[in-house]
Amino acid sequence: MFKFVARRILMMIPVLVGVSFVIFSMLYFAPGDAADVILGDQATPADKALFRSQHGLDQPFIVQYLRYMEGVITRGDLGTSYVTRQPVTVEILQRFPTTLKLAALSTLLAVLIGVSVGIISATRQYSFMDNLFTSISMIGVSMPNFWQGMMLIIIFSVALRWFPPSGFSTPMHWVLPVVTVGTNASANIMRMTRSSMLEIIRQDYIRTARAKGQTERVVIWKHALKNALIPIITVIGLSFGRLLGGAVLTESIFSIAGLGKLMVDAIKLKNVPLVQGGVLFIAFVMSLVNLVVDILYSFADPRIRSMYTRPRTRKAPAREPA
Amino acid sequence: MSDTAAVSVKMKKRGQFKEIRRRFMKNKGALLGLCFIVVLVVCALIPSVIAPFGFDDQNLTQRFKSPSGLHLFGTDEFGRDIFSRVIYGCRISLTLGLVSVTISCGLGIILGCLSGYYGKIIDNVLMRIIDIMLSIPNILLAVSIVATLGTSFFNLMLAIGIGAVPGYARIVRASILSVKEQEFIEAARSNGASDWRIITRHIIPNCMAPIIVQATISIASAVLSAAGMSFIGLGIMPPTPEWGSMLASGRAYIRDYWYVVTFPGLAIMLTVFSINLLGDGLRDALDPRLKT
Prior knowledge:
heterodimer, A: 322 residues, mainly alpha, 14 helices, flat, B: 292 residues, 75% helix
């Protein structure tokens, strides 16, 4: 298991280097000069030249990139934001807790709704309930997230005045954003749970379990769900990873100071170090989530576990010993 | 000899098509989706006939009128008829969806074929590039592309299209890997067919089902992302009646005038919903094994 995790972490490195290179070159070759955008129209050419030399922007592309990577690898330094003149790491870590909270709460809500509704739908296929839930989830997938947020604001804060329309400070503020993001993510989880469960329920071992006289509850929750977990975990991991990158539109609707908003503002302002650092950070977090998902697979499926752990008793290997 | 072979192939093809159509017609949801898409296409083709007003007919004495017989969906902050703007918006959203899917589908098929058919180093390199693209969130990728190239209709389509390439490349690669080793490919190769011919005439037709399904569904997600991009101000700019940018400009008034944002959003939702229904129906009809 340890070997597997170590190998996966090593495999993350080339991907992250690739991500940094792609983003770096994209920003480097982008038309428009950071000095113009940041310093404004009034800046003299001398000011701009000073800005460029201060930030090493007058160096050739490869030198800039290698310098940047050197900072990242040796000092964990992602550079300094042009706008606030704070280290990028500080800026990101200031915003990340909010994003993490939103992502975690929404995913929790999404899993609760998605998995339970998916199971209900799968166990009563083509019933009224199933049709109802399937249609609702289809509508959920089709709804623009930010529009759903606006509708919730119109109904629950403007008309009913139950929840505040913006911010993310108190639990009352959490409700609308979490519901917006969570219900949206739950639609996918529900669809995956349903289809995965439907496939498993038709298997022979489920019939065997029923034939043995096992109660339906144990059959569904223990025999079926456990076997249907892999695709469900995949979807949950994907949506959680994506949310950690910042729910850009939801954050913008509810004026939440999260990672997504930070990134979009940085991109618009050509705040190159922040964009680079942010994308790299998000890619890193997403790879971590993927790693956790892969580890969870091995808990859900003993066949996968056995690929990474040494069985206690073992027959002589067929191939020659190394 | 060759005549009979040709005839039997033809018959089999027709039979298959009939069977697919039969399965599709049985699916009421998919038919519903198709009907709505036809309505949308008509709106996109002849908006000036259907819409009672022009998309930019301002009338400042008629600002924020509630929905009524004259203005079905009400009017916005410039007194423009929201219903007409929604109708004109069909053309933009549908064009956007189709073009960006063409871009991503084309690139994805090329990459997937190279990767799946040639394997080895090409496969490794391409798959790593795709891993890299997948670890950048789609919306950030699209935002950076548009910020890099500048905001324009085409750049928006390109940005959304590029974000969807990895999905296609993976699907195409997987289906190529599944047919590559089969006998009919070997037969074609032993007949002296070139790689190009094998890929275009034998492999791709056999992978069409998942590609068609993915294309349909990604039109839906392209419409959604385009609306999102316009909403954060990096897509289509006002006064063009794009649904997402209508939502963005209406956002300031949601406290007092609910209808300014409700109807454009409903239009997005219904469009995406019907495309999704169609996509699900196509999947069930084209490939019963994939049925969920």
